[in-house]
Amino acid sequence: MIFAILVQGSPTGVASSLAAYRFAEAVLAGGHSIARVFFYGAGAAHASAFLVPPAGAADLPHLWQALAAEHSIELMACIGSALRHGVVDGREAARHNLPGASMREGFELAGLGQLVDATLRGERLISFGG
Amino acid sequence: MNQTTRVLVICRASAAGGPRAREAVDLALAFGAFDQQVSLLFAGDGVLNLMPGQSEDGVRSIERLLGALPDYGITPLLADADALAARGIASTTLVPGCRILDERAIAELHDTHDIVLMT
């Protein structure tokens, strides 16, 4: 089965965000595939390269980055949400005259159309948080 | 899912309390723009977004955004009767184009949609 995953919770201190990652691991361990993970709202902060989780807490941005690299999963953050959370790639940084990019490698910015596309391509959309 | 997907978006937050109300409407608009069949239900504090004439001081009301929904086939706006009652909001005071649903109708709504998304 093909899954699309929507993550709406912050990468720190929100149980649903850790659940989303563990669900993704279970999906892959079960022999299924993930079309795309879309980070929306507060979830867009997962795409930040400058986020430091509290000591002892899971480093979800790093974990997603590693999982996506190993299994060729697309990690997409909603561009509107990302801008509101200080997450910009080089292009957005230049466009908004910001001092530099803050996006983590392995993530990309995308419009909501990419969530719709993943939903229509995937067999199941599973939403976490919200 | 080759044919039209029926998407139910549930907005449970007030626009005055943060971005989640707008995020719900944006989700509904995105699926509507891709010609999917979208229903938008306001529940919990989300029903507060259906009261017209809200101040925009400091926060952006989503009233104008709601006006764009019929252009995407998202009409009527659905409101949870219990949430309205709990907040003392009379159905006659809502923005035009709302339909009030009781608990049973909301349960049916879940049954008749392929995807349910909440913010």
Largest sheet of chain B: 5 strands, parallel
CATH superfamily of chain A: DsrEFH-like
The greatest interface between two protein chains, and residues involved on each side, is: A-B, 19 and 18 residues
CATH architecture of chain A: 3-Layer(aba) Sandwich
Give me the secondary-structure topology.
The complex is a heterodimer of chains A (130) and B (119).
Chain A: E1 2-7, H1 15-29, E2 33-39, H2 60-71, E3 74-78, H3 79-84, H4 90-95, E4 107-110, H5 112-121, E5 124-128
Helix pairs in contact in A: 1-2
Chain B: E1 6-11, H1 20-33, E2 37-42, H2 63-68, E3 77-80, H3 81-86, E4 98-101, H4 103-111, E5 115-118
Parallel strand pairs in B: 1-2, 1-5, 2-3, 3-4
What would you say this structure looks like, in words?
The complex is a heterodimer of chains A (130) and B (119). By secondary structure, chain A is an alpha/beta fold. In chain A, 38% of the residues lie in helices and 21% in strands. Chain A has 5 helices and 5 strands, in the order βαβαβααβαβ. Helices cover 29% and strands 20% of the residues of chain B. In chain B, strand 2, helix 2 and strand 3 form a beta-alpha-beta unit. A 5-stranded parallel sheet of chain B has the order 4-3-2-1-5. Chain B has a single domain, classed as DsrEFH-like (Hypothetical Protein Ychn, Chain: A). Classes of the chains: A alpha/beta (130), B alpha/beta (119). The interface between A and B is medium-sized, with 19 and 18 residues.
Main attributes of the structure:
heterodimer, A: 130 residues, alpha/beta, Hypothetical Protein Ychn, Chain: A, 5 helices, 5 strands, 38% helix, globular, B: 119 residues, 5-stranded parallel beta sheet
Summary?
By secondary structure, chain A is of the alpha/beta class. Helix content of chain A is 38%, strand content 21%.
